[in-house]
Design a protein that fits this description.
flat, 9 strands, alpha+beta, four-stranded antiparallel β-sheet, three-stranded antiparallel β-sheet, 53% helix
């Protein structure tokens, strides 16, 4: 694999730092950090360039807080200047390099993929199993972000990057917190990179390993989709997926120094919500059946509560304001079998104008 060097000068250039500042402030121009930075914007950029050039840059102290929705997580927040600008400056250069390294079935934080791209791929895979049995292996990596090994992360980065100065900067940011801090702009890409070579192994080597283990004549058809640390595996039989679990558990524990929770499950995908001979794949906000696609229950519940509150507003909202209020959920509904849900909860006077 070709390793890339001579990147650091481009990353720390004043022009790139200005562009990083422009990108990092999108949607945040009225926040305290941006307003403070803007009082001495150009001087700050020049000072940051000097700190990176002389390698005196240090990651700022984190503001750590806990969120409880959708589940309890520690969030690490860095100041806008200098840290968020530095992260964007790095990704201005490294994003296209790393995205080319990611597999075709990696969707989290990749432009033009994301949740809807991932959901579309699941739909496509389910159709490929039409007329055949379809089973799913669902695993959960235990505390993925906090458990990421810094040594493994650095080793994986060095498979693609050889620029010593850039490696110094990346190591400095990685060592600033335990695991990968949730909330860092850089962390979401590093999390993909951590599983990148695992996914290459899954796509290129795993089917042959399973074939040999089960003494099959042909390699079994195994499909995997990665969205962050959420990776379901789909195949025609339970025996194949039991072998898949055996091999991926060994790889994840030995190569990545992570652990899989003991609550892994192998189950048949049901035809629809009424089929008692299987169940849905609960993934990226949807419930995927073989012939049906619904919104995840928690998302549906929040949607219904919001609409109920809007329907009781006095005076009532106009159609535009109503649509803006429910927009976060309309995407889920439009890309699933939710026509009946929309007709049930949305007032008739708004229905035609918002869809």
């Amino acid at each position: 694999m070709k390793r890339i060097g001579n990147l650091y000068k481009t990353i720390i250039s004043v022009e790139n730092l200005r562009e990083a500042d422009r990108k990092a402030r999108k949607g945040k121009t009225h926040t305290y950090g941006v307003r403070v930075h803007d009082k001495n914007r150009e001087a700050n950029i020049l000072a940051l360039h000097e700190a990176l050039l002389t390698k005196t840059f240090k990651t700022s102290p984190y503001d750590v807080f806990t969120i409880f929705e959708p589940k309890e997580r520690l969030i690490f927040h860095l100041p806008y200047y200098p840290d968020r600008i530095v992260h964007h400056a790095i990704m201005n250069v490294l994003e296209p390099i790393w995205v080319k390294t990611f597999t075709h079935n990696t969707y989290s934080c990749v432009k033009k993929r994301g949740i809807e791209g991932c959901a579309h791929q699941v739909d496509k895979i389910i159709k490929e199993f039409e007329g055949k049995p379809l089973y799913c292996l669902k695993i959960d990596i235990k505390k993925y972000y906090p458990s990421i090994s810094h040594n493994v992360m650095k080793r994986l980065i060095r498979r693609k990057i050889k620029d010593a100065d850039l490696l110094w900067l990346l190591d400095e940011i990685i060592d600033s917190a335990q695991g990968l801090p949730i909330g860092n702009y850089l962390s979401q890409y590093l999390a993909n990179l951590y599983l990148c070579y695992f996914m290459h192994w899954v796509n290129e080597c795993l089917p042959e390993l399973v074939r040999k283990a089960l003494n099959l004549k042909e390699k079994p058809y195994i499909k995997a989709i990665e969205y962050a640390d959420d990776i379901p595996f789909l195949a025609e039989s339970k025996d194949v997926l039991h072998q898949v679990f055996k091999f991926i558990k060994e790889y994840i524990e030995e190569e990545l120094e992570l652990s899989i929770k003991g609550n892994y499950q192998i189950f048949p995908i049901a035809k629809n919500r009424y089929d008692k001979h299987g169940r849905a794949l609960d993934y990226v906000g949807y419930l995927f059946f073989r012939k049906q696609k619904l919104i995840r229950k928690s998302i549906k519940k929040n949607f219904c509560h919001t609409v109920s509150r809007l329907n009781r507003r006095k005076p009532p909202l106009d159609a535009k304001a109503y649509k803006q209020a429910v927009a976060p959920w309309l995407g889920w509904a439009k890309h699933s079998d939710s026509k009946h849900l929309l007709k049930t909860i949305i007032k008739p006077c708004y229905y035609d104008s918002i869809l």
